[in-house]
Amino acid sequence: MTEEREYVLGTHDDELRRLGFQHQVWAAPTAALFERARFAPGQHLLDLGCGPGYATADLAQLVGVNGAVLAVDVSQRFLASLEAMVAARELHNVRWQQNDAASLDLPDGQLDGAFARWVLCFTPNPASVIAEVARVLKPGARFALLDYANYEAFTMAPASDAIARVIHATGKSVRMSGGDFGVGQSVPALMHGAGFDVEYLEPIVRIARPGSALWNWPASFFRNYLPTLVTLGLITDDERHEFESVWKDRSDNPAAYLITPTMVGVVGIKR
Ligand SMILES: C[S@@+](CC[C@H](N)C(=O)[O-])C[C@H]1O[C@@H](n2cnc3c(N)ncnc32)[C@H](O)[C@@H]1O
Asked: Which of 70, 73, 145 is the pocket-test mutation for ligand 1 (most atoms within 8 Å of CB)?
């Protein structure tokens, strides 16, 4: 087996489950982006940085038996999970490849479309990833991308310094690993430079109240990630406990709300 390549959030079982829950919570904006990109039956699509394949499965159902989805990720563990899932769901039109997003083992100009969600923010050279997607698409094919544009826009009400500190530390940890939770700001320019016309651009921001599934989305992230922030020395144990106590307080407060970090949905057409 190839050596496991973990991204900064890890590829352990809890992260695998978190990605499944995250997929569920963000399924509607994702499906809307698929429509904007005109993904359709019979197409051959790329799911770049597919993780355990939750969006891959949706795309496979969308393109149907006459289409196909190629799922690419650096993580062997996530791809093993994808393999088991597509077998259990009898999705015979999914293929997968362990590879870096910036160097795909694919010929030029063959694919009808590509999708990348929360991947570019973890890659050290987003320009080369977008150029690689441009290389493998046919002229006229669409690339749909969803990613963070401003992570630190995350808002908790009532406001809390303990929460703001952890949000800041999270952004810093991603930068330390070579990523950028503000990458969405550069995507239109990078797409343009790589040979795409940017056809569609939207902000994706939502509000959540305690008790909702969306409220539990950041909660599930921090449950997994706070220990890493402590290990990296970006927060102290006391700051972790303070965060947990404020989070519990807000979760019990029916007047509290949170606003999710600003993301962008982008669709480019290969010239
Ligand atoms: C937050 S997960 C998103 C997974 C999936 N796109 C989704 O929306 O559920 C980020 C994924 O990007 C993958 N990844 C990170 N850097 C990568 C790279 N350079 N090339 C390919 N995949 C990468 C990780 O292994 C992980 O599966």
From this structure: 73
Cβ of 181 less than 6 Å from ligand 1: no
pLDDT digit string (tens) for the chain, length 271 residues: 467 888 878 888 888 898 999 999 999 999 999 999 999 999 999 999 999 999 999 999 999 999 999 999 999 999 999 999 999 999 999 999 999 999 999 999 999 999 999 999 999 999 999 999 999 999 999 999 999 999 999 999 999 999 999 999 999 999 999 999 999 999 999 999 999 999 999 999 999 999 999 999 999 999 999 999 999 999 999 999 999 999 999 999 999 999 999 999 999 999 9
> Is 75 a pocket residue for ligand 1 (Cβ < 6 Å)?
yes
Q: Is 30 touching ligand 1 by the criterion CB < 6 Å?
A: no
Atom number of ligand 1 nearest to Cα 100: 20
Q: How far is the CA of 84 from the centre of ligand 1 (A)?
A: 18
Nearest alpha-carbon partner for 100 in 133, 68, 149, 148: 133
SS3 180: coil
**pTM listed for this prediction:** 0.97
74 lines ligand 1 (CB under 6 A): yes
Contacts 24+ apart (CB under 8 A), 207-213: 207/257, 207/258, 207/259, 207/260, 208/257, 208/258, 208/259, 208/260, 209/254, 209/256, 209/257, 210/250, 210/251, 210/252, 210/253, 210/254, 210/256, 211/251, 213/24, 213/25
